[in-house]
Structure formats: C-alpha cells, structure tokens
Amino acid sequence: MERIVEPIPSLPPDTEVGREEKRQVARPEPFDDPFDTSLPEKQISRRQLINKLNSLNFQDRALSVVFQHREYPRALTLQAYPLPCQSARLVCRWDKEIDFDVLVESYRFQCLHVSKGQQLIKVQAQVNAINERQIILTLPETCIEISTRKIHRHKCRQVAAYLFQNGATYFGSLLDYGAAQFRVSVTTTPPQTFGWIEVDLPVTIVFTKNNRTLYSGECRIVRHDGGVDTRHFTLEPMQHQMRRFQCREFRSTRHQLTPPPDVSFEHPLFGKTIDLKVHDISGSGFSVEEDASSTVLLPGLIIPDMNLIFSDGSTLHCIAQVVYCLVQNGARHPVVLSGLTILDMAVEDHIRLLGLMHQATDAHAYVCKKVDMEALWDFFFETGFIYPEKYEFIQANKEKIKATYEKLYNQNPSVASHFIYQKDGRILAHTATVRFYESSWMQHHHAAIRSADNRGGLIVLNQSGRFINESHRLYSMHMDYVFCYFRPDNKFPYHVFGGAARNIRDPKICSLDPFAYFHYRKQPGVHAALPSRWRLTPVKEEDLKDLQTFYENHSGGLMLQTLHLSPERFDCSGVVETYHRIGLKRERHLLALRYRDKLSAIIMANVTDLGLNMSELTNSISILVINGRYLTQDIIQAIVDELSHHYESSEIPILLYPLQTAEQIGIEMEKNYTLWAYDTRNLDPYFRFLKRLLKYIQH
User: Fold this and answer.
1) Do β-strands 651-657 and 621-625 pair in parallel, antiparallel, or remain unpaired?
2) DSSP state of 658
C-alpha cells in the first residue's frame, strides 16, 4: 500500500507500541455491529458529511475506521481524529500509535463510521495514503445514514473498573458505556489468570473516577475477546431496581408540577451533558423519562453533580443515585421511567425544594417563607405563646431578640427552619426547628390561633414531620435525632410527643426524660466558691462512660446520644462553626464536677443568642447528676457562679437531671420539663401513631 510522502514528526520515546498493543492489532475482537441495518437508510451529501466531520474536530471527538481481515471473517475498528476538512480530501490522525506492519499485511480498509446521535454515517471512502500516524482518504459524493443503534454505547475515558467474582479481583478501565450493556478492559495480576472467572456466573462491577465510586452492581458476561493478560468483557447489568435506603411505610409525597422542572448533569461515566424532564418529584427524590432507545441511566449509578432547574430559572444542586429503571409504553415509542433518590443537597437548597412541595400540597402552608416580623410578633402575643412571665424576660432584651429573629426568619440560615400556616396575610399557626447539637434538631415554638375551623396547628405539626421524614437521610442536614422539651401540663405536646413515646414503648426509638427547671439569678459582686474537696475539671471520655452507665441503669433512653454526651458522640465543633459562620452565637462548655476526685455530675453550659428559644432552653446550664450524695444547693450555686460569665442575662435557666435530685437537695423547682428524643432512623412508628392521633382529633 502506498505510503504518504508528507514529512511526519518523530514520536516521543514513551509512545512506542507495546507487546500487548501489537497483540490487540494482530488479534482484534470480532466486530460487534451495534446498528440495525434492517431499517430504512438515508443518503447524506458530501457537504453534510464535511459539516459533521468539522463538528467532530471542533469537539475533539473521534470517528471509527473499520478494516476487514484479508483472510478471516473478522473486523478491526480503530479510532481516529479528523482534521479540519474543506473538500473531498480528509486526513485523520490515529488516537494512539498502531502496529502499521500488521495492519497493512493482514487488513484492508472497509469504511468509516461517523456517529450521529442514535444514527451512524457509513462512509465508503477511498484510501489515498496511510502510515503510523494518520490515514488520508477521498470522500464520496454521498454516503448513507444507517438507522438506530440497537445498543448505543458512549466512549469513556479515565473511569477505573474493578471486576469481582468469588474473591478474585481484576482491575482495568471502562471502555464504552450503555445503560443496557457496557464494555470493560481488565488485566490479570500474577498468579491470577482469567481461568478463575466462571463466564456463566454473575460478576460484580465497580466504576470509580477521581477516587469516587460511581457505580457498583451485578452483571452478566455477554462476551469477551479471549485475551490472555488483558481481556475485554461486554457486560449486561442484572439489576433493574435497587434499594438505597430501608423501605418505609410513610414515604414522601410525589407531585407532578406544571410546568415540570428539568434535570441537567454531566454524565459521570462519559462526560456528555444530559437534559431530561422530571416526571414527578418529592422532597427526597424524583423520576425522569428517557427515550428507551437512548437511555443513559442505570440502577445504582451515582450522579455527583445534578441540577434541578425550575420554570422560573431557579436551580437546585444535589447528589443523586438511580434506584430503578422501568420500561413503559409511551405515546409514540417505549420510554424508560427512572427513579432517583437525593443522596445529599445543601440545606438551603433542600429547604427551598420542600417549600415547593408543601405549597403543592396546600397553598397556605409555607416552609421558611420570609416573614413580616410585626405579624409574627402579633401572632405570638395573640396565641398566648408569649405570656406575661415570659414577656418580662423578652421585654428586657427585646432589641437583641428582634435581631436574632430577623436572622432566623429572613436570612435563610442553614441551622433553622420554620413552618407557617397563613391565610389572607394572617398567620394562623407556626412551629420551628433548629439544629442545636452536631446531629440533633430541636423542635420548638409550636402555636396556633384557637378557633373551631383552624386546623393550622395540626398542619404545621405535619409539615415539621414531613421535613424530618424528607431530610434526615441527607448528610448536610445532620439530623440523626430530633428532640423537644415540653411541660407535662401542656396538653397538646403531652398527647402528641408523650403519647408517641408511650405508644411506641421502645426507649431506643423514642424516649422521655424529666428535668427540674429553675433560674439562677446573678448577684453583682457575689461569687460563691466550691469547697476544698470539690472541683470542676474538663470532661474526659471516662467521665462520659460513667455517665452512660448511670443513664442506662436509670433510663435507657436516647438523651445522651441526642444531647451529644455519649463517649462516641460528644463533639459539637461542626455546629458551633456553622453558627459562627452565619453570624449567630453558639458555645458549649462541658465540665466534670468531682468530689474527692470521684465523678459527681456532668455540667453542660449551652450559650446562644438571647431568644433563640423563648424559654431560653438553648441558653441554659444542664446539670446531670451521677452521684448526688454530697450535693447541696450551695454546690449548685457555686457551679453556676463559675459559669455565669458566659451569659448576658441576669437570670440563667438551670435544667437538673434526674428530676428527683431537686427535691433531695431542697431546690424549689419552678417547672418540670420533659425531654422528648427520637431516633430518625426509624420514623414509621411515630408517623403511624401521629396518623391515628390526627384522625381521632379531627373526629
């Protein structure tokens, strides 16, 4: 065959053809024609072809050069990059070095394959010259566009592939990908051989890129090329559905929005931008429709950067994973309905999504809506939520409290959310949550206008439940536990939260722990010191283990995990940093009270902006007594004196546990509060109880 006479630059030393590459040219895999040639063909002019070739050049994409073996019925397909083309003369550069001698001795040129979406342009060109670097051809006047691919596969780069079977692991790369089939190249590591692989049994495949796992699943081996050290496997996924999370009885409500939002993402395996319409959506996931002939989603596939785009142009970002792909009959042709679960999303974006979902359910139900602060304060006074004794504290600090609430309600902080039921501009019900410990959210400030036809109080309670149900799985939310404090003489929380715990009867799912509540009043110039045998020291892990042993014997509930006071869960630096970053105050000081070096109590001083919680439960000192034998009121006062400099207010709320300790040492408690705590990993029992309770209340 004639060689080209144009000068060719010398190749760098590290591009020399290796032994394995020579074997691949000498022993190529049989040509697997992925196109359905039974459907009608369409003629393409040379001018149209040139435009397509220049498009490939502009996007640095390759075409396929197909060779037929001179003696045997097998084909060899090489990838080449077309250079800019203006006439019938086309120059294509090989994407990697080839063994030229083997190629010209054993193969003859057959045609070019130019991919065009789901079609292929087959070009019966004439070879003018060929060498180790490039091939020069003359394009025909016309060529043909062959119909739809049976299995459309996209070329992949830099995607690592791991193949597992019965304890054997093979490493390689993903060559091309389709949702129905994909092809991997893997190598052996001595003493491995490919004889260890049973081709009739499933294999497990894992794809990674940049140290991030993108897919894992069981696959069937469709075919392989019989390579000795390196082998190409064509694989077919066996899963059409997977389970990312534990099945739940109470699932998120799906909505079909009009107009529907779009999803846009760069496919993690082959890099092309994909745009799809959302079929339905909830706060925890959504489904999309794809043409069955061009589907790119696969159950188990993780999409690290997906955008949800709404009709007003707003965009929400998330990490998503495909959980099912179901073929359905469409209006004109089959479609694939693919369901995706949201693995993670920024708190602010997720709250915006929940706001849309709650509005779709009830136009009067709002999530984190910007609030007219005058209307909100009027609501708190009208409902009696701010009663005279509470107002005495608020009035003394009202400017600071107003500033705190402006941040919480109108600056969309990532540590707080609020739910409002509002009609004709009037707030009828309200509740709120705040992330207070590293992985625990506090529910508080539930109030409603009392009237026969106002169900707003139940609606916002249901809203906060939906928020927890649809948020707790997201890492960004840090919501392993939810909790609240309520007074047992307050009928509504007693029946809702207390009733849930009594109904569930499992303190490892839902627990109740009573606290004594009283105030310590600072006295200027007075500072009580601890007696000589008592001292306050930083908490050690061993102290928390002692606390845990005491608490398990005394209660056995969730208080320590919820308050982040367990040996394995006590760091709160992340939430403290988050508060500081958004301009809110958050401190936590942990101390151990010792008598003669024996642990007597754990002291937790929480410090926040005034009014974060109107009962100042978030701006208080909690004293958890383990051994109260020698504890007295004077010791309690000395402890609080030691910590009082952290607090702005002259009155500091104290929460004392266990409740009976107050009576034992003669402290007159003002109220008692019950800490209700819930593990969000098992929410069904709570919603099952709430559903029955709401039916009873409504009747």
Assistant:
1) parallel
2) S
pLDDT at residue 22 greater than cutoff 70: no
Around Cβ 11, how many Cβ atoms within 10 Å?
12
The 10s digit of each residue's pLDDT in 330-348 is 667 788 999 999 999 999 9
Tokens 């696959």 — which residue? Answer: 219
In which residue are the tokens 């060498």 written?
131
Query: Which residue(s) pair with 286 in the sheet?
Result: 281, 340
At which residue do the structure tokens 């529910």 appear?
443
pLDDT tens, residue by residue, 187-237: 999 899 999 999 999 999 999 999 999 999 999 999 998 888 999 999 999
| String of DSSP letters for 94-154 | ESS---HHHHHHHEEEEEEEEEETTEEEEE--EEEEE-SSEEEEE--SEEEEE--BSS--E
Can you give the pTM of this predicted structure? Answer: 0.81
Six token digits for residue 584: 């809110």
383 vs 140, 426, 463, CA distance in Å? 84, 13, 20
Please, which residues have CB within 8 angstroms of residue 306's CB and are 6 or more apart in sequence? Answer: 263, 264, 265, 317, 318, 319, 320, 340
Residue 631 DSSP SS3: coil
Instruction: Please list, in sequence order, all residues whose beta carbon lies within 8 angstroms of the beta carbon of residue 617, skipping any fewer than 6 positions away.
Output: 444, 485, 653, 655, 673
pLDDT tier at 17, thresholds 50, 70, 90: very low
Rg of the chain over Cα atoms, rounded to whole angstroms, equals: 34
